[in-house]
Amino acid sequence: MFSPSHFTAVILFALCASVVFGITQRETPRRMMRYGLYCFALFVGSAFVLSWVMYLVAR
Amino acid sequence: MAANGTKTTQAEQGFVYGPLIAGWLVPGAGHFLLRKWGRGALLALAILGMFSLGIAMQGKVYTSASDILDILGLAGDLGNGMLYFVSRFAGLGASAVQVTTADYGTRFIVVAGLLNVIAAVDAHNLKTGRKPL
Lengths: 59, 133
What we know:
The complex is a heterodimer.
Chain A: H1 6-25, H2 29-58
Helix pairs in contact in A: 1-2
Chain B: H1 2-11, H2 18-25, H3 29-33, H4 37-56, H5 68-78, H6 82-90, H7 100-128
Helix pairs in contact in B: 2-7, 4-7, 5-7
């Protein structure tokens, strides 16, 4: 059984979702790549921000 | 302008729902039918990878729907097309979530299905000319 940490799961989820979003939501390869990277950064960045918010709320 | 019109006409030829159905049944197949090999391979890799990770994490494969959340989960799982039916037939995945990672895995399987639907609709848009080839 594969048991990733929460952060690893977020990275894997963001990677797969960003690839599909990039290819399907833009028309040229260059714009696909940029949009995919943008989505990946937003997924991972929002995970960091929400983690810190939950940490501070729980204190 | 004329060249663009010709391209649209070529894209609309034939059975326009072929890539949509193929893309739903097999991840990336809709793009392969349109000879978009690179895009199809990346989509297949991403969706198959996500589904496989979900199964490897002992995610739940929805088999019945008793409440609204189960119905939504089942709808998401059905988006995986043949992967869903093969996993049901082979008895892959867990019938109940027992550990934390299994909960992640359940979401991975549902989201893989939803992403597969997005990819299949993209193939359909390429076929109809709504999105440029």
